Amino acid sequence: MPEHAAAPLLRPPRHRVDPRARSWWRTQALLTLSGPMLLTALVMAVLSLLFFPGALPWLGPLLLVVLVLPAVGYLAVMPRWRYAVHAWELGDRAVYAAGGWFWQKRRIAPLSRVQTVDTVRGPIQRRYGLATVTVTTASTAGDIKIAGLSCADAEELSRRIGEVAQDVPGDAA
Amino acid sequence: MNTPQGLGPYAGAPAATATAPAPEWRRLDARTLLVHCGWMGAPLGSLGLTALATGGRISSGAWITLAAVAASFAVVTAIGLIRWARTDFRVTRETFDVRSGLLTRRLRSVPLHRIRTVDLTATPLHRLLGVTVLRAGTAGSGEGSGELSLEALTVAEADRLRTELLARAGTAEVTEDPVLARISWRWLRYAPLTFWVVGGVFVAAGSVYRALHEMGIEPWKLGFVQRAFTEFGTGMLWLTIPAALLAIIALGSVGAVVLYVENWWSYCLEWSDARTLQVRRGLLTTRSVTIERARLRGVLLREPLLLRAGGGATVRAVAGGLGDKEENRKRSVLLPPAPRREAVRVAGGTLRSPFPDAELTHGPGAAQLLPHPRVALRRRRVRGLVFAVLPGTVLLAGLGAAFTPVLLHAAWIYAALSTAAVLWLARDAYRNLGHGIAGRYLVTRSGTFSRDTLALRREAVAAWTLTTSPFTRRAGLVTLTAAVAAGEEGYRIPDLAEADAPGFAAAVTPGILDEFLAHPS
Question: Which segments cross the bilayer (chain B) (predicted)?
Fold first, then answer.
């Protein structure tokens, strides 16, 4: 409860994720959303050019507004925005991570509740030398996911969480 | 992490079995085989009805169905026989072991101290045969941990096994009256106060239609149905439509009462000993859920809109080991729709301390909830206007402009009525928001369609999450979620002031957030 005059604020976690994460997110965006959208726009434009040239004056702007601009915008904005938000920190008693871009999430889980630490490297992530560390607790709403760490950082982090979690007394249940 | 279903005995077992002889392996009840054949009732029954309806002529489709039923019967019986013959179980001093499997023998051995809940469920068929299904829920609700289920045991055997599974040293007798609540049939008046009254009628009508359809009867082609519909259409609509609505509500209310009776017949909530809470209920399908006190993380008082208007509430347990979300919803109910005062009393009895009730301003159970910023009210209004008022109005107005001016009138009437409703609901939703700390409990309240008051043990919070969107960031709000290894897993406190949220979380669970807090000076 705010007993003091100025209520304490939650500062962002100390460490940013690896800068290469931006490229990883960009590739992901290209593969899942922006790429298919741009491709659809291209195919429709070509088809219209070949068979219905009369439709181009209205179809062109429509495609531009509905498909091309959102795809390019997502590709340009999302990775940078994400990079500005994503951060992590391993404190003495808790793990703290921030993620998301449009909807942002900051989660803190005490080390005494940590059950497992998983390190996952996806095929695209591997190309950029990145990894995702997931710290699970007994509650599914308490799992912390730190995406876009460099492999060295990920290894170091999971090792340290493992060490600290052993030292901190507590029940994992 | 040791997993309970690993092969081989649990690490602690050999020491125990060395001193005492290992207990005998026990079998399931042979009547289980008959239960497995119970599913045949529906297809055989519908086949018989078809034969009756068509005057004994059975179509080729029906013959195929019959053949399929016979084949399935053979397969199911064979599988059931194998499962019955190859499944056995025992309770050692430290573990509960279940062996199963025909070729791949699987031994699941769960330490007794990890068993949190025991659930006995018997469908009408089970009860006819005098058997019941036992499920033992273990700690950790994630996949893999799961539960052990034995289908089926005689009722006496199941009761004995439950006692064995939950018996541990020091089960002191309770001193106070162990019974928290019994069914009172005066509560039946709350049964129709659910949203399912109207929806349930349509669901029932749908299933009847499907059943008829499968028997080859098309209800729309029956003479009297068609006549009823034409008469309905040509009759005085201003009279027939309200009459039909009344009929649906009456039918739904009767259905709700019947369901209430089915679900809550001989309901009893009691502390079976100092450490286990037991709910027993059911007329045809009986259900008995046992929750270990150590796994009870809190209590949720639910007041759905209609029930709240009638002064009623229900109570749910926030407990671990009750299964996945679906099962948790069924098993966590501690009290059926009942008077609010009764619900608060039962919630307090479950917590063994007065339930922090935000409605009270003084007395032992009074809880002071902090209101949320005014801007949360604006958000609720805007949300309602954008998602409920706007689409309907635009749709009606568009159709009206295109086709008939009658719809234009419908559009402004809809806009006026829905705006009034949205504003009322938004105000209610805002006034229901609140959070606070009452002794060992975190107390939060939110919701308008269902006003939920949650009292959660503070030390049960396993993690904190703060979520924002661009809209809430602009409004200076944040949604705080407390992660718990029980119940719904995550409990949201929506739309707190951004400046208050970290301080509140730190006050609820001292020590977790402190190192990440910045104190502005």
Answer: 33-55, 61-84, 190-212, 232-261, 384-403, 409-426
Question: Touching check for B492 and chain A: CB below 8 Å?
Answer: no
Highest-pLDDT range among B29-43, B85-99, B112-126, B390-404: B390-404
Question: Is residue B5 situated within a structural domain?
Answer: no
Question: Residues 74 to 133 of A: which have CB under 8 A from any B CB?
Answer: 89, 91-94, 96, 102-110, 113, 115-116
**Do residue A91 and residue B521 have CB atoms under 8 angstroms apart?**
no
Q: Can you give the pLDDT at residue B365?
A: 65
- What is the tens place of the pLDDT at every residue in B430-451? 999 999 998 899 999 999 999 9
Using the Cβ of B442 and the Cβ atoms of chain A, whether some distance falls under 8 Å is answered with no
Residues B208 and B349 in one domain: no
Q: Are residue B437 and residue B507 in the same domain, yes or no?
A: yes
Find how far residue B412's CA is from the centre of its chain: 39
* Domain ranges, residue B211: 190-264
> Is CATH 2.30.29.30 the classification given to domain A87-167?
yes
Closest in B467, B485, B517 to A139, CB measured: B485
Instruction: Give CA torsion, residues A46, A51, A53, A59, to 10 deg.
Output: -60
A83, A118 Cβ separation under 8 angstroms: no
Q: Is the dihedral of CA B210, B212, B217, B223 positive or negative?
A: negative
Asked if B516's CB is within 8 angstroms of A91's CB, the reply is yes
Handedness of CA B2, B5, B11, B16 (dihedral sign): positive
pLDDT digits (tens, 9 = 90+) for A39-86: 999 999 999 989 988 888 899 899 999 999 999 999 999 999 999 999
A140 contacts B516? CB cut-off 8 A: no
List of chain A residues whose C-beta atoms are within 8 Å of the C-beta of residue B489: 139-142
Tell me, what's the pLDDT at A65? 93
Q: Which two tokens stand for residue A21?
A: 């994460």
Tokens representing B409 are: 């009138």
Which pLDDT score is estimated for B423?
96
* Residue-level pLDDT at B378: 94
